[in-house]
Amino acid sequence: MLSRQIRMTLKRIAYSVRPSCQLVLIVLGVLTVVWVLILLQRPLEDMASTKNKRIEVPRPKEYATKKAYETDIEIVYKQGFLGYNTSRIPALVYHQGYFLAFCEARKETFRDIGSMDLVVRRGRRLDWKVQWGEVIVVVTKPGYRVMNPCPIVDKDLEAIVLVFIAIPAHLSQWTMVEDGFIQQQVMVTRSFDNGLTWTYPRDITASTLGKMRIPPGIYAPGPGHGIQTSSGKLVIPGNYFVKDKFGSMLKFEENIYDNANYANVIYSSDGGVSWHLGGSIPYGTDASGWTIHSNEAMVVEMQEGVLMLNTRTLHPDLPRVQSWSRNEGHSFSSGKLVPELIEPGYKLVNNETQSSKAAGCQASLIGFPAPHHISKHKTWLAFSNPASMFREHMSVRLSRDGGRTYTNPWTIYDLPAAYSDLTYFETLDRETGLKLQNFAILFEGGMDTPYEKIMFKMFNLDALLSRVPRTIRRHRTAAGSD
Ligand SMILES: *[C@@H]1O[C@H](CO)[C@@H](O)[C@H](O)[C@H]1NC(C)=O
Ligand SMILES: *[C@@H]1O[C@H](CO)[C@@H](O)[C@H](O)[C@H]1NC(C)=O
């Protein structure tokens, strides 16, 4: 019917022009009709051939695209600040127009030992500028080092929930791992005024580490931020060392006092009041026989109830590990190596390359809404770490397929660099009324060592999309890694 009408119309037009053009117009008209019919036919064919796939309903355009924009790198902490020796272990969240930049304020040395406080600086965002406030001491505990700040913004309570650990100042982590019993506290504090004041910390060791079948020698949250899931649950990623039957089977350099190392989660369903033990990545080996050790971890929610852990491995030659949970973190699938996510494992000693004792490095991962109007994946990921053999080259990558593949790295800082944390924030585009998607990163770096400063940088999604190299390398283990 439709095609006949169109043909009639075309004929009428054709009769009104010179006879020599008539044939050309008729042929063009018929071709146009055929082309329109093919287009109309296509969705039906798609439905027939992909019966088992979910049909995505186009979503209204929510996000505007803009020109790529990134700020210069600025220093938030540096060695010697307020009489502290070194700032280390950054963690970053964004809430109600403020960035909260946490770190450990180490008093005696840059190393992982001696007295430490936890501190925060609040940065008020004024468009693409940040007004940083004074350093606020969040936790100090005489005789202890308070470590691994792991903050979460609880959107229901409008509160910042901070989980951390307290360890006797001069008890080394290697002694703890060798001893193999609990000699630390897991603690939580909350802020109801966006980081200005903090509640007296509460000890949550008994309901978390205390519930493990074999007591861990050491447990450490994060480092970096935790998440609130779509159901409102607070989830803290972390890792622990335990002397179990697998630990004693490890050979030579992989054996750390007969301990196995597991990334895990702890969670709270009541805004950070009570805490419980979640699942951990099971012990296992990958297809080529490498033992999977999962160390410092980050967690993202891929879709409702589906979490993914992305972790450091202590082996110098192994890349990062990922694992999925389909039950909101109660259990995790076996870990898979992610070949493109390389991490440092070496250091230069007297100009010679040597493998580090505890290799790998922390990384940050954050999930954010995919800007696609039609997208198979609801969540895209931004990932940051020193993508090198050494602790240097702070880099950011993007994953558009749920962590199966990552783009090549965009290096944002070329010099020595180590730990980092990413946060995501949305702003409003005044012209279109649509939302804009932006990121900030807080990371350790310096000229000669990575621990001289903690620095900050903002960029929009358009910058990330245009700065990451186009090529995507596929996982060796991509098949079925969900
Ligand atoms: C920090 O401690 C180290 C010793 O670990 C010392 O060499 C260095 O001078 C100290 N730096 C500052 C800024 O206090
Ligand atoms: C370190 O090694 C590099 C390359 O092998 C060489 O160019 C450099 O001179 C060496 N530096 C020192 C201090 O030995």
TrEMBL record:
Gene Ontology BP annotations: ganglioside catabolic process; oligosaccharide catabolic process
Keyword Cell cycle set for record: no
Entries under SUPFAM superfamilies matching the protein: Sialidases
Domain annotation Sialidase: ranges: 114-423
Transmembrane domains' residue ranges: 21-40
UniProtKB keywords: Membrane, Transmembrane, Transmembrane helix
Domain of life: Eukaryota
GO MF annotation terms: exo-alpha-sialidase activity
GO CC terms in record: cytoplasm; membrane
UniProt record similarity statement: Belongs to the glycosyl hydrolase 33 family.
Classification via PANTHER family: EXO-ALPHA-SIALIDASE, SIALIDASE
Full protein name: Sialidase domain-containing protein
